[in-house]
Amino acid sequence: MSFRSPDPWHPLILDDVRGAQKMLSGVARVTAMEGSRYLSSLVGAPVHLKCENLQRTGSFKLRGAYVRIAGLRPEQRAAGVVAASAGNHAQGVALASALLGVHATVFMPVGAPLPKVAATRDYGADVRLHGQVVDETLAAAEEYADETGAVFIHPFDHPDIIAGQGTVGLEILEQCPEVRTIVVGIGGGGLAAGIGLAVKSVRPDVKVIGVQAEGAAAYPPSLAVGHPVSIDAPTTMADGIKVGRPGDVPFRIIQEYVDEVRTVSEDALSTALLLCLERAKLVVEPAGVSPVAALLSDPKSFRGPVVAVLSGGNVDPLVLQRILRHGMAAGGRYLSLRLRVTDRPGVLANLLGVLSAVDANVLDVGHVRTDPRLGLTEVEVELHLETKGPEHCAEVEAALREAGYVVTAG
């Protein structure tokens, strides 16, 4: 792909994204667009899911990484590339480098999920585990670039990366020409910037809405003051969008082309992940379901037809297990209770009988006998129950109280 200027920080235009689309032909998949009947019923208009979770490497990141590395000069390719990532960007850089015959070194945190480390190695990258947090990993990668001359591939703060991610927007317009609103998650901003620029350049009438996790929302305050600002200690289950400061390049584009940035709660994220799994039969990571979380949080505020971009599906199975349990609890389908009973034979059987009578499925039972707050003959029982929704939860608690148990939250 030949950009118009040798300056890597030149302003992007639609032709750059179209050039990236040509470059990615036969490399990145044109991912499926799936309708969601459930979300459509909530919104009152058609809702489609753009399934980048089904992209090669499991996320949209291959697009930008390939365009960035393919645009390197021969001497830069010979020096190799280096990246720092806990997951999706690592895999995108690894596969893109392998396809282009470029040596890739990827620094990952020591605690990175083993499936992501293994996948990055399998794509051909030299993986080096360094640091406990991504900032330490990033510093190590930059030091390696300075020492070796390898080209550092930033996950979002470069025009080539944004041009590659913008091809998702062009595909949306081709697959759903009647679209009126596109909802996309925002971390550093590369994907939202690319989609916003591509879509608004062709269809300025289409609304582009970005979504961030409440605990990692650096864009709203940054947009309010007109420049990127950092937030302290971003916290969210959505690692893919847990970025403490917007990228300089995507920020300028988002300022111009993205209509609005909303935030969503952790409960909304886990509920959205559960919804995608159960209703759409799609495994999506927490960052990838942020647009669905926004739709669930305020469905009537979106003008349809709506396209929600599922940006990735790389979620560690152990993390998925915890999130699903959180999502079930948020949806009133998982109930944790504590109650005190007399420590004598038959008491637990009676308790389980009450739960059986109201059709509550017991997942786990725990006992505490050594708490100084307990009486000499008392035991505290902790229950984890699968229920059928908020009304059923209330029914279960009412039945226990009616049977004489003192119930507290788990």
Can you give a write-up of this model?
Residues 336-410 form the ACT domain. Its EC number is 4.3.1.19. Keywords: Allosteric enzyme, Amino-acid biosynthesis, Branched-chain amino acid biosynthesis, Isoleucine biosynthesis, Lyase, Pyridoxal phosphate. This is L-threonine dehydratase catabolic TdcB. The protein has helices at 14-24, 37-43, 61-70, 74-79, 88-100, 114-122, 134-148, 159-175, 190-202, 219-225, 248-257, 266-280, 290-297, 317-330, 347-357, 390-402; strands at residues 33-35, 47-51, 81-84, 104-108, 126-129, 151-152, 181-185, 207-213, 260-264, 306-310, 334-342, 361-368, 378-386, 407-409. Helices cover 44% and strands 18% of the residues. Helix 1 (14-24) crosses helix 8, helix 3 crosses helix 8 and helix 9 runs parallel beside helix 11. The strands form 3 sheets. It has a 6-stranded mixed sheet. The chain folds into 3 domains: 14-56 and 158-327, Rossmann fold, CATH 3.40.50.1100; 61-152, Rossmann fold (3-Layer(aba) Sandwich); 332-409, Alpha-Beta Plaits, CATH 3.30.70. The model is unreliable at 1-7 (pLDDT under 50). The chain is α/β, with parallel strands linked by helices and 410 residues long. The longest helix has 17 residues, at 159-175.
